[in-house]
Amino acid sequence: MRKYLIFLSLFCFLFCGFSASKPVFADNDKIYDVVIYGGSSAGVAAAVQAKRMGKTAVIVCPDVHLGGLSSAGLGATDSGNRAVIGGISREFYHRLWKHYQKPESWNWTAIPNYGMPGQGGRGFDNKTQTAWVFEPHVAEMVFE
Are 76 and 138 in contact (CB under 8 A)? Predict the structure, then answer.
């Protein structure tokens, strides 16, 4: 019985290994200055900074959504002291705020009717022009 289980396990292992699809190579003839593995917010920020420094960059990411938790379902930021958030991160929150300034961004309510709740402060801060509560698909749009 033990030999049978070993044979069956080996057969399944080999069958799965040989039947797996070939990897897909996109633009395999391109050369990049910076290759970033992982499409999290940090990965996107790294690619943006590399581009600003005049380098070419590519993000290698097996995930469906670019932007990590921000674009995959987490629509609120636990920011604590928001004054310490700057740079590319601050630009992200500003771009979210700009999106929500458009009337067509509000399907279910108008911005004056929205209570603007947020953790550690208001979800939308017009003084600093940042949005700390957002829809994940909007975050993904900003990342792309």
Answer: no
Map the chain to HEC letters. CHHHHHHHHHHHHHHHHHHCCCCCCCCCCCCCCEEEECCCHHHHHHHHHHHHCCCCEEEECCCCCCCCHHHHCCCECCCCCHHHCCHHHHHHHHHHHHHCCCHHHCCCCCHHHCCCCCCCCCCEECCCCEECECCHHHHHHHHC
Confirm whether pTM is higher than 0.85.
Answer: no
Residue 63 falls inside a structural domain: yes
Give the Cα separation of 114 and 97 in Å (integer): 14
> Is the Cβ–Cβ distance between 82 and 120 less than 8 Å?
yes
What domain range is 95 assigned to? Answer: 29-143
Our count of domains for the chain comes to 1
Average pLDDT for the chain = 81
